[in-house]
Amino acid sequence: MSTSITSTWTAVRPVTKQNWHSTIDLSARRSVLLHILMLLKSKYGKVDTKISYIGRRAELALYAQAFSAWEYRNPQTLSRRLHSLVVKLHLNNLATSEDAAFKMEQTMSRKRKSSSTDTQVGKRVRYEVIENATTSPLFFDGNRDFLENVCSFLDAREVLQCAATCSLAATQLPQFVKSIEVTTMSMMKLAPTTRSTFFQRFPKLESFSLTGRMQAQQFNFQDEQTLVARNVLVRSVLHALSNAQLPRLAVFSLNFCYSEGLKDHVTSQIATVLADPSNKFPRLHTLSLVGNCISDDGVLDLYDAMALPRDGGSHLALLDLSQNFIGERGHVQMQELVTQFAACGSSLIVNVMNNLLTANPLQ
Q1: SUPFAM superfamilies in the record, alphabetically (predicted)?
Q2: N or C: which end of the chain has fewer CB within 10 A?
């Protein structure tokens, strides 16, 4: 049984970077730099002045980011740590474009909401005819249990297709949707106004999964516009989620659908939504954030949200953070979270496979 973790939570994160820099001498740093230059040479075929400069900057960044001397000097993870650094630096260059696009979408959504309340004089006659034809209560009045039973055999797409047949169906049927699995491509086709109120249509939603293309995580950066659009989409989805009441939501998945820069701002937004003091999602037991370039900073934000004391405790049982860019600091932080849950009689599994370190699930 899940219990409150108030007694083990503190306002100060229990894990910070250790002072290990004094244990690393100049020869050790030169050795790491040599390995970096060898990796760059294998990729670019030579080491000229420009490549040498890039190598030195990369070594300095890895030196500053590493949680311990072991992580900094580990040759087995150097290639992936270097790759993650390059990816996140490039994605960080798109932050300004992303913020501008997100702000524009929110503005458009508010304008369309306000204009939708205006009377459309030019379509008045046609509107009245449609209303008269689609508001017959013969089938929908008193058959709520029957409709819910029928919808239980349909997926979300089929239920919404039925809901499009008339106004009463559009009002009632979405309330019976319990599971939604949608791709980023499909979600992008929705109007900003529809996305902003997306979750309000499904008050009984128990499972939501938004999935992108795994190939998009290879990062050839040929289509920066798509990378920006995906992040804007996820941020708008999270904004809609923060304005919804979903007391039955148990599973929430965002897999391969956004790409973090240096600040892990999207993951921070997820943490903010989950840490809402009103506890809008009391039954949430599975949170999956696979393949989104999450680093240690994002993990720290998630830790702050998960460890936050709340009435009734937390039902979270699985946190899937596999295939991200989480290093030693993030691993240690998640182990601390697992320990806190265990101390309160709750079992939490954190999947950190295929990150910057080779590790088994924490439990």
Answers
A1: RNI-like
A2: N
